[in-house]
């Protein structure tokens, strides 16, 4: 897996970093999903905070981070907080070995925010069409994916989405927040 940093310059500093942008699922719901993900045997359960992805892992030059952060601040200011309801399970199988919790309410807002985030300095093509969701099992054996789907069918979480966060992928393969952006903030 990528270490989150491209080859270093002559001084040892990385020339690029891997970032992502997502909406955090607050506790206790985030912890509940993370614990479930761990119970299904997903080795990434503790290294990825529970979230709805807005920008998948994207490599950017370190020198571009200030422009990226300004872009994210400007985008967040244009959007407003919104309610989110996570309800039940879904899957991308057979196309991709993923089981997820469905975004029942807040999907349109997620689509609008994602389109705004993935513009300007963060414009990029996606491998799959954007579909807001919360991953609970990924790249696991079929029996574990089946169990995840069955056990998460009754999941329900309702909360207000106040904004999103910029994350950086570390050399230790853990995603950590760099900055939170509040919707409507100037």
Relevant terms:
alpha+beta; 4 helices; four-stranded antiparallel sheet; 186 residues; Cyclic Phosphodiesterase, Chain: A
Overall, the morphology is globular
Pick out the low-confidence regions.
1-9
CATH architecture: Alpha-Beta Complex
Looking at CATH, which topology would you report? Cyclic Phosphodiesterase, Chain: A
Main β sheet profile: 4 strands, antiparallel
Q: How large is the share of residues in beta strands? A: 25-35%
Number of domains: 1
Number of helices: 4
CATH C-level name = Alpha Beta
Q: What's the quaternary structure here?
A: single chain
Structural class: alpha+beta
Radius of gyration: 17 Å
The CATH superfamily is known as Cyclic phosphodiesterase
Report the average pLDDT across residues: 92
- Give the proportion of residues in helices: 25-40%
Order of helix and strand elements from N to C terminus: EHEHEEHEHEEE
Tell me the span between the first and last alpha carbons: 37 Å
Summarize the structure.
The chain has 186 residues and is an alpha+beta fold.
Describe the fold and architecture:
With 186 residues, the protein is an alpha+beta fold. It has a single domain, classed as Cyclic Phosphodiesterase, Chain: A (Alpha-Beta Complex), CATH 3.90.1140. It is 25% helix and 35% strand. Strands 2-1-7-8 form a 4-stranded antiparallel sheet, covered by helices on one side. A 4-stranded antiparallel sheet has the order 5-4-3-6, sandwiched between helices. The radius of gyration is 17 Å and the shape is globular. The protein starts with 15 loop residues before the first strand and ends with a strand.
């Amino acid at each position: 897996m990528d270490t989150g940093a491209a080859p270093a310059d002559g001084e040892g500093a990385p020339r690029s970093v891997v970032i992502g942008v997502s909406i955090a699922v607050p506790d206790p719901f985030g912890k509940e999903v993370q614990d479930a993900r761990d119970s299904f045997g997903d080795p990434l359960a503790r290294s990825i905070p529970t979230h709805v992805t807005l920008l998948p892992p994207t490599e950017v030059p370190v020198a571009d981070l200030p422009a990226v952060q300004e872009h994210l601040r400007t985008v967040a200011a244009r959007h407003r907080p919104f309610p989110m309801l996570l309800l039940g399970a879904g899957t991308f199988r057979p196309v991709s070995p993923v089981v997820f919790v469905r975004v029942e309410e807040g999907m349109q807002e997620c689509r609008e925010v994602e389109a705004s985030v993935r513009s300007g300095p963060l414009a990029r093509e996606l491998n799959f069409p954007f579909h807001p969701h919360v991953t609970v099992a990924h790249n696991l054996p079929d029996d574990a994916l089946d169990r995840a789907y069955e056990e998460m069918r009754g999941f329900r979480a309702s909360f207000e989405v106040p904004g999103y966060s910029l994350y950086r992928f570390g050399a230790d393969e853990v995603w950590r927040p760099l900055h939170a952006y509040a919707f409507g903030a100037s």
